[in-house]
Description:
Structural class: mainly alpha
Number of domains: 2
Shape: globular
Radius of gyration: 21 Å
Number of helices: 8
Distance between the termini: 57 Å
Number of strands: 3
Amino acid sequence: MSSYSRVIHHATSILCSHKGSMDLSQLHRRVYQRFDISDEHFWYILKKCPRFALVRNKLSAEKGEADYIVVAKTSLRLCKSYAKQDCFGCQDLHLCKYFVYGNCRYGKGRKECKFSHNIQSEHNFPLLRECTLHELHEEELFLLLLQNDPALLPEVPPLLFETPLCVLSNEKRFSEKG
């Protein structure tokens, strides 16, 4: 895979600049504009590289066509202990999660945030380099993290399940069963 590292990086960058996924044929065209790569080699990269997931395109499948959507992946995560200031030397990123969301209320000329907003820090950069994500733009990296790190998904408020609509739905579901 190392011989394909530039192709992998370029494909990742393209995917991240297109909200994290793209049709296989469209991605291949974009990569081919920069790299002379055969269909077979491109398919090999997408199937073997853990950076990508191939998802069958439902619209094409309904028409009987075999087409796929390529989704960018990473195993890199934000450190859960970092927010508690209880972590030293782990293999996860030390960043303010609100900075990744793009809505940290600190660091915009106001009071300084107590969590890192530096993806190039001594802790973060080696991790990004190891995962070959160090050349991505900040926005591309954040999209990749948001798309892959379950800890960055928004919390569902417990009261949501106690709204009248949910209660009515649950009562109806239980009364139908029994």
